[in-house]
C-alpha cells in the first residue's frame, strides 16, 4: 500500500470519528477525558469540540481538532451539565446582590435549575423574575414551572375554599399563559396555603391546560407525612385521568409512621407505569427535610410565630400555653409544621451544649421524658440554646431503596444560602451537596449504581421528562452545558452544621459554551439564560 493511499485511509477513518475537518476552528476543544454522554452508556475516550455555544463534534481521541482554547481533561470525566428539576434558588433573587452566580450549583456541576416547584410563581411573577435575571445575569440556566399557588393567590386572593367553576376557568387561562411563555409544566404545593384548599378536580382541570403544550405535572403532594401513599396516589390518579406526565416532587418516606414504607409507593408507581402512565420522581440524598429552630414551630391563636422573647412567657402562663398548644397542633386555620408533619417526623440535628440530643426523634424523646410531645418541644425551645430540628426525618435504608430506581432523578430542593439564611439556621446541606453526594457517596463509595447511571439520573432523565430537548446529552448540536470532574474526589462536604461547605471534585463547568466555574470558583461569567420547553413536533 502506498503512503498516499495509507494517508487517505487514515483520513477517512478520522472523518468517520469526527476529525479531518479541514479549516474548521472550534472555540474550545476538550481533550483526553472520559466522556459520559448522559444516556447511561459507559464512559469512552473522546474529544469534544464546542463552537458558538453548542457541541459541534464528539470525535475519536485521535482526531486533530483545532480549537481557540483547549482543556486537558486527562483522568477526568466529561459529562453533560446536570439539571436540577426542583430548585428554589431563582426565587431568592430579591435578596441577592447583582448577578445570580449561584456558586452552590455550579460547584456541583449543575448548569440548569428549575424554578417555581411547589406551585410558587404565577406568570406575572415569572415575567418579573425572568426579566430581572436577564438584566442582572445568571451563571446557570434556569427554567420554570407555572405555579398553582401563585395563580390561585392572584385569581382568588385570601380565599381558603374550593374554587368555583369560573375561578377554575380563570386559573386555567393563567396556566396556558405560563406554558406559552415556555414553562415546562404545572406545579402544585398541595401541602401549603392556598393549595391545600384545592379539590382534586380543580387540580386535574388545571393540569389539562398543559396538554396542548406537551407539558408535565409536578406535585408537592397533599399530606406526605400522615397520608403518604394516599397523597402520592392522588398525583398518579391525575396522570391516569389526564395523560399528563407526572413527577412526584422530592419523594421520600418521612417520620416514624412511614419508616420502611417507601416500597409501597414504589409498587404503586411501577404498577402505574406498567399500565402506561408516565410517572417519575425526584429525590434529594439527605435524611432530613427542611430545618427550623424549635422556637419557630409554635403558633399563637392568630396563626403567627411568637417572638423569641415572648415565647417563654407565653409558655409559662397556663392559659396561653394551652391556646398555643391548640394553635400549634391544629394549625390555627392555616399552615402549621407540627400539623403538617407531626412530632414523629422531627429529629434534632443541632443542640449546642447538649450533644446527646442530636439525632433524637422528638416523639421518642417525649416518651423518654414522660411528657407530651408539645411539652417536649417547649422544653427544647426554652431550656436549651438554639436547638434545630429537621421537620422530615428519613430513614437511610428508605433513601437507598428509592434512589436506585431508574425512574428517580436527582434534585436539591435547594435554596439560596446567603448570610441571613445561614444565620437563621435554615440553610440545608442539600443546597450545596446533593449532586456531589450522589456521585461520590452513593455511586462511588456505596456502589449502588455505576457512574454512568448516576450521570443519567442528572442529565438525560430530567431533560427528557421536562422537554429540554437540547440539554442533557453530550452530542453534536446540543447546548454546550458540560461538567468536567474527578470521579475519584467528587463529594459533598456540606453537613447540617456546615451547610454551605463547597463540594469537591468539580474542575470546570461550561454553560452554553462559556466557562462559568473553574478550579474551585466561579469565573464571574453569566452565560445562563431562560430555557424554554421545546414545543411538540408537528
Automatic annotation (TrEMBL):
Alphabetical list of PANTHER family matching this protein: COLLAPSIN RESPONSE MEDIATOR PROTEIN, HYDRANTOINASE/DIHYDROPYRIMIDINASE FAMILY MEMBER
Signal peptide (UniProt feature, chain positions): 1-21
Domain of life according to the entry: Bacteria
Protein name as catalogued: Amidohydrolase family protein
Signal among keywords: yes
Domain Amidohydrolase: start-end pairs: 70-516
InterPro entries given in the database record: Amidohydro_3, D-aminoacylase_insert_dom_sf, Metal-dep_hydrolase_composite, Metal_Hydrolase, Metallo-dep_Hydrolases_sf
PROSITE patterns, per database record: PROKAR_LIPOPROTEIN
This protein's UniProt keywords: Signal
Protein source organism: Sphingomonas canadensis
Coiled-coil region list: none
Lineage: Bacteria, Pseudomonadati, Pseudomonadota, Alphaproteobacteria, Sphingomonadales
